[in-house]
Each structure stands twice: as structure tokens, then as C-alpha cells.
Amino acid sequence: MNVKDFYYDLPKELIAQDPLADRSSSRLLVLHQESGELEHRHFADILDYLKPEDCLVINNTKVIPARLFGERESTQAKIEILLLKRKEKDLWECLVKPGKKAKPGTRILFGGGLLTGEIMDVVEDGNRLIRFDYEGIFEEILDRLGQMPLPPYITHQLKDKNRYQTVYAKYDGSAAAPTAGLHFTPELLRQIRARGIQIAEVTLHVGLGTFRPVKVEQVQEHHMHSEYFQLDEKAAEIINETKRRGGRVVCVGTTSCRTVESAAAKLREENVSGEGSQTWVRPCSGWTDIFIYPGYQFQILDALITNFHLPESTLVMLVAALAGRERILRAYETAVEEEYRFFSFGDAMLVI
Asked: Is this prediction's pTM over 0.85?
């Protein structure tokens, strides 16, 4: 497959710059996998498509204010860094701008010295390993000095940083929000539970590799960056129970999808399930670089709630793996014609 096979034309004015006042009032494009039929609804209508025997899988990762602005200690030149991945307690893999002069040994001051960092090494893709020094609690200092790492296509200032956070975010670690979850409100989640639908919480800390452009021509040659995931005993139990009773596993977002599919792959690798086993996933954690594109056979996911994704992105490829490339591209063309809002703060899609 060629990466260009996943291109669609998107007018810039359809890229949502601000979140809606009411999270659940966004529009919802429903795509039925078998028939290809499309329905135009609102997100709160998601209740009409969920059954008591189903389970909803959500990603409870929390976005950290990972964008820091500082200056070189030696020259006072401005420098911007983005925390990507914690390697040790105070050692982070970071994206640095400008990067040319950011060599090992360079010291950076943030907040007038409230936080300092020293570049220790240059790693894959030109990222830097930075060791931080501070007094107090790192997360509190980061909350004071850092900004939310909004995607580059969002140019408006975010007035309330909690709007780039799901209402169920728990565990710090993401460089980007699992945006399909931004549409849920506490009330909508209460209504879902009231209907007997179980909710399984998993964790995948989203890295920027998810959103980086695919630079190869052939899809199969692309290599995903690894991201940390965790699926605990309770989530595994809910998913396995759902599968046993013939219910559907409905994943909220591509990150939840990658988590459950990675857990299933891990179980297959360990070869512990045995013939005829009623176990689809077991509690597990680790790093995953799973790349899902057309031809992939889903082991856990049955339906997907997701936002609209960038042309030629790995996320469009994942959705196409579920519903078919031509069907997804037709759905996206319809969304453009109907002026849906796109990307992180945009509208949602249900592939069921």
C-alpha cells in the first residue's frame, strides 16, 4: 500500500481551533461497517448504539503541561523544549527547538532558574536526553511553568487547559490528549453505566510519534514510536467477560484500541492461552509500537469511537483497517461536504 492512498482533501477552515462549550454537543458521524451506511447524529446519541452486554474501553492517561520555554545559561538565547518520554526519575527524552546548537553539556534555565536542565545526549530523530535539577516536586513545578502541548494545527490560545484533558484523566504521562475521550461528560458516563454498560479503564501514554507524518512511500515500511501502556486486572476481567457473553468491545479512541490489541498480541506471544481458551487478554504493561493498517485482523476491538484524523496519517490507516480504506475515505469526504469539525477539538465518528 502507498501512503498516498490515504490522502483526502481538507479545507483549513474545517480544522477546529477551539473546544465546544459543551463537550457532548459535538456532531457524530456513524459509519456502519457492514452496510457502509452513514448517519448524522450528535455525540450524546452514542447511547443509542451501546447495548448492556457491551463494554466501553477508555484511556485514562493525563496530559502533562509538557511545553517549556527557557533560555541557554551561557547566551540567554530562547529555547523551547517538549517533554516526550520519561527515561528515569529526572531524565527525559525531549524535542528541542532550535536544535542545531543544543549539544550535550548545554544548560537551560526555566522560570529564572526555578528549573534547570542539562542536555546529556542526542538520540533517535535528533531528540535530546535532558536531566532536570530543581527543588521540590517536579510535577508542581511543571504545572507552574509548563504549557499544554497543543498540536501545531491549533493556533488559538487555550483558555482552560482542562479542555485538553478528558474528564476521566488520572495518570500523568501523555504529550497529547486521547482526543476521542474529550467528548464525554460525567453525566454521559453516568448514563452509560446506568444502562448496565461496563467501562474498562486502560492507560496508554500518548507520544508525539502517533502524530508525526509518515515519511516513507510504502505503508509497511513505516515504524511507529513506542508508547507505554498498562492494562490491569479489572480491565482484563471486563474485556474477557464481554467477549465470553458475545458483547462488543467498543474502544474510545485509537489509543485504547492500540492498548487492547497490544495486550492480545502479548498473550499470543506468551502462548499461555491454550486451545479453546476463554481468555482474550491478561493484565500486562510495557512498551508497544503496534502499527495497525488495512490487512490487520482485530483480536479485541469490535467498534471504535474516534475523531477525524490527518490525511496520510497512521491514525487514518488504523480506522481504515477496521472499516476499509475506500469506505473510510468516502465517509471523510462526506464529513468535509457536511462541514464537520476536524482533528483534536473537532467532531467524532463511530465505526460500528
From this structure: yes
